[in-house]
Amino acid sequence: MASDNKNTKKKISQLEDLGNGIYKEIERGQNPYLIVPTRGLANVKYSKEKGILTLGESTSKRYFLNVGHVRKFVQTVAVASLSKNLIQSDKHTSLRDVFYQMRRTIPGTKIDVVDDQTETDKAVEDLELITDLTREQLHITANKNGAVAGDVVIEDREDTIDWAKMGSGGWAIPSTTEDIEFKRVNAKFVLYMEKAAIWDRLNEDRAWKKLNCVIIASQGQATRGIRRLLQRLYNEQNLPVYILTDFDPWGFYIYSAIKFGSIALAHASEKLALPQARFMGLLADDIERYDLKRHLIKFKDVDMVRLKQIQKYEWFKDNKPWTEEFGKMEKLGAKVELNAFTAKGLSFMTEKYLPEKIKEKKFLD
User: Fold this and answer.
1) pTM of the shown model
2) Are both 191 and 154 inside the same structural domain?
3) Residues with Cβ < 8 Å from 120, sequence gap 6 or more?
4) Last-in-domain residue among 98, 124, 141
5) Residues 89, 21 share a domain
6) Is 307 in the same domain as 345?
7) pLDDT in tens for each of the 365 residues of the chain?
8) Sign of dihedral through CA atoms 261, 262, 263, 264?
9) 177 lies in the same domain as 317
10) H helices within the chain, ranges in order?
11) The domain boundary residue, chosen from 83, 109, 141
12) Which residues are catalytic?
């Protein structure tokens, strides 16, 4: 509890320092400004030492007395004020609610602080960059989009929750997973999958119990709450994390974003990326081994373009197993979905595919 109070005071202090800095500039008769790290691709670097994407040192100044800057300046300061109040009252609000709370007319004018949610979303992202606090630490949340099951007991805001007793839907993973406390963890590894339908299939089979693991899913790209949860399960509970996706460029990208981070969230890689994650999804050799050729889905142009992009990623270029995998996919000119396994039996993944992958350690790093 003392640690929580200390963290709260630190966050409030950071936001107050931001406001005080602006106030002092005004008192001195100066044009107040914000220093905002540049989010462009040119300022995103891959750190081989850390194994993650990081944001470079390039910054820009956003001035209050500048017609081109003033709107974003005011929006960012307004979000900072809102966040400070949220932290002080120990309450959270959604990105959508931030928009409605900020949508007001500036006194004496006919100008609204914000016109649509894209403006408040960008202001929140800018505040993350300025303060080095994540959106979740600023008490601003996004929609829930994920589920988890396993022999794990947690405490979340004084509620004790058993992931093994959450029924067919599992426990809905919130946007903020930073303050969850692990009370009991009985698992050997974590299995994350990109599709909710695959998670439903494995949960109905109680695969998490048979394989002694935790199963987690989103619908497509992993949310920030899920990424942070995966990172915490690895760092704090020493659970290896395996990524289960389709054999397609989009599935490979999902793995890449979890492991190395993403360009859009390069500033938060330290808190979200997991360089130790390994790929347990469908590979080219699995198509032959499990007789999945009749389930090949021919590439569209957009699929090949995506594959070419991923092949050029710095973290893949010198990785021989991955370059070979990309080459095989390019030669096939097709993809295969995990759902294809249901043609061999609804429980095929639980009873055969996953146990064999684990036993033979058929992972890509």
Assistant:
1) 0.90
2) yes
3) 75, 79, 95, 98, 99, 102, 114
4) 141
5) yes
6) yes
7) 455 677 888 999 999 999 999 999 999 999 999 999 988 888 999 999 999 999 999 999 999 999 999 999 999 999 999 999 999 999 999 999 999 999 988 888 888 899 999 999 999 999 999 999 999 999 998 877 899 999 999 999 889 999 999 999 999 999 889 889 999 999 999 999 999 999 999 999 999 999 999 999 987 789 999 999 999 999 999 999 999 999 999 999 999 999 999 988 898 899 999 999 999 999 999 999 999 999 999 999 999 999 999 999 999 988 999 999 999 999 999 999 999 999 999 999 999 999 999 999 989 99
8) negative
9) yes
10) 2-27, 70-89, 95-102, 117-131, 196-204, 207-210, 224-237, 249-260, 269-272, 284-289, 301-311, 314-317, 320-332, 348, 354-360
11) 141
12) 100
Is residue 139 a contact partner of residue 86, using CB atoms and an 8 Å limit?
yes
110 and 191 both lie in a single domain? no
Whether 365 is in a domain gets the answer no
Q: Is residue 263 part of a domain?
A: yes
Tell me which DSSP letter residue 271 carries: H
Q: Left, alpha or beta for 255 (phi > 0: left; psi -120 to 50: alpha)?
A: alpha
Residue 182, strand partner residues:
154
Q: What 3-state DSSP class applies to 13?
A: helix
Domains identified in the chain, total number: 2
**Residue 257, amino acid:** A
Picking from 232, 253, 248, the residue whose alpha carbon sits closest to that of residue 312 is 253
- 163, 149 in Cβ contact below 8 A? yes
Same domain membership, residue 312 and residue 232: yes
